[in-house]
Design goal:
The chain is an alpha+beta fold. Helix content is about 50%, strand content about 10%. The chain contains 10 helices and 7 strands. It has helices spanning about 10-35, 40-45, 65-75, 80-100, 100-115, 225-255, 270-305, 310-345, 355-365, 370-385; strands at about 120, 130-135, 140-145, 155-165, 170-175, 180-185, 200-210. A hairpin with a 5-residue loop joins β4 (about 155-165) and β5. α4 runs antiparallel to α6 (about 225-255), α6 runs antiparallel to α7 and α6 packs antiparallel against α9 (about 355-365).
Length: about 400
């Protein structure tokens, strides 16, 4: 295994912190450049963290969800694009585990753990442009385009999907280098600029039936429908990590500044209005972190129940995660916008690129409308009805 010797005696969180320290000096410039962060993704490969969510029997570390989410949050403090594709890697591993049986996913997991394979996403069930045509008893052809394919470029394995003639969603696992798969490289949004979340194209791509996740398949049981909840918690920790990163930059900057000329204080750290802003930042962050921890505990308990998980229990987890998602969304947008209020005009220089914190969470918080998370929580509060499973809740 190509893992650096220095990582062997470190905890996953220590490794994530070391990666974050390595990514931090180039994060602002790479954000401007966009494109694929190949060198940084290779460092994640070498770190051993890609095996974090894989069961031990297949060569992975079988970490708990708190550990996995903490590593995502740590990397997001300096680089939310890398945290995004790294987090999605673990989401895709979980998707395969939830949508199929161990006899099917065992070789994929063993290869991933042994060779530090990076998984990429071309699933996006809302984009129905890829069709799945059955051409023989055990063979399908996938043909068409998929948008929002985060982490697809430079991946080793792909989770892909297409709709058959009956309108059924088919999800498959294939090597990224499978003939007919290509990437347009057309991701050019205001934020998350190094997630490679553009369009993937499938040109008559052969998919074997044993590469399709059919048993139990997507969202067919309360346990399999944990998949979207894991995705939502990845976003929660991504948002909190970005907010923490912005908060830390603002704090370190203010410690070097003099107070505004009208202030009675000499240094900015002693200015009462500056202190008030930082208190607001801290309170929002602390509340978001506590709600996230509560949601992770609920998910971990549901994960451990496996197929014994009931629909009602799954729904309660969904409410906890939706609550954390609302808090993390609002916290990240508030802090990343208002750090300029305490840092002043000099913080807006393009060289620092500090607006990237806001641009990144503004982009990613639109993944699914937060209004519907409010609706889900509000309905539960007023009627006791838990959210129905979908690909986004």
């Amino acid at each position: 295994m190509n893992i650096r010797q220095s990582y062997l005696d470190q905890s996953p969180l220590e490794i994530a912190r070391e990666l974050a320290e390595t990514f931090a000096p180039t994060a602002a410039e790479r954000d401007k450049q966009g494109g694929n962060p190949k060198a940084e993704r290779d460092l994640i490969r070498q770190s051993g963290l890609l095996g974090l969510s894989i069961p031990k029997q297949y060569g992975g570390q079988e970490a708990d969800w708190q550990t996995i989410f903490s590593t995502i949050q740590t990397i997001a403090q300096v680089d939310s694009s890398l945290a995004h594709v790294y987090g999605f890697h673990h989401l895709l591993i979980a998707t395969v585990q939830l949508f199929s049986q161990s006899e099917q996913y065992a070789p994929w997991f063993e290869q991933t753990a042994q060779n530090n394979l990076f998984w990429g996403n071309t699933l996006n069930p809302l984009d129905r442009r890829t069709i799945a045509i059955k051409v023989s008893e055990n063979e399908y052809i996938f043909h068409g385009d998929k948008s929002f394919c985060s982490g697809s470029i430079d991946s080793d394995m792909l989770l892909c999907s297409g709709y058959n003639e009956a309108g059924k969603l088919l999800i498959g696992v294939i090597p990224t280098q499978r003939e007919g798969v290509s990437f347009l490289g057309d991701w050019n949004n205001i934020g998350q600029r190094q997630t490679d979340s553009g369009t993937s194209h499938f040109e008559q791509v052969n998919i074997h039936e044993d590469e399709l996740l059919l048993n139990p398949g997507p969202l067919s049981t309360p346990y399999s429908s944990l998949r979207p909840l894991i995705a939502q918690l990845i976003f929660v920790h991504l948002f909190l990590g970005v907010a923490e990163g912005a908060f830390d930059v603002a704090k370190q900057t203010v410690k070097t500044q003099k107070a505004w000329s009208k202030s009675l204080a000499e240094d900015a750290v002693n200015d009462p209005f500056t202190q008030k802003h930082f208190a607001e930042f801290y309170v929002q962050l602390e509340g978001g972190r506590l709600l996230a921890d509560k949601a992770v505990q609920a998910l971990q308990a549901a994960w451990e129940l496996g197929n014994d998980l009931s629909a009602e229990q799954r729904g309660e987890v969904s409410v906890a995660i939706a609550t954390a998602k609302i808090a993390a969304t609002n916290t990240s947008l508030y802090i990343t916008q208002n750090i300029f209020q305490v840092m002043g005009a000099r913080a807006t220089t393009a060289k620092l690129n500090l607006d990237r914190f806001w641009r990144n969470v503004r982009t990613q918080t639109l993944h699914d409308p937060i209004d519907y998370k409010y609706q889900e929580v509000g309905e539960w509060v007023l009627t006791g009805k838990v959210p129905d499973p979908s690909f986004y809740s």
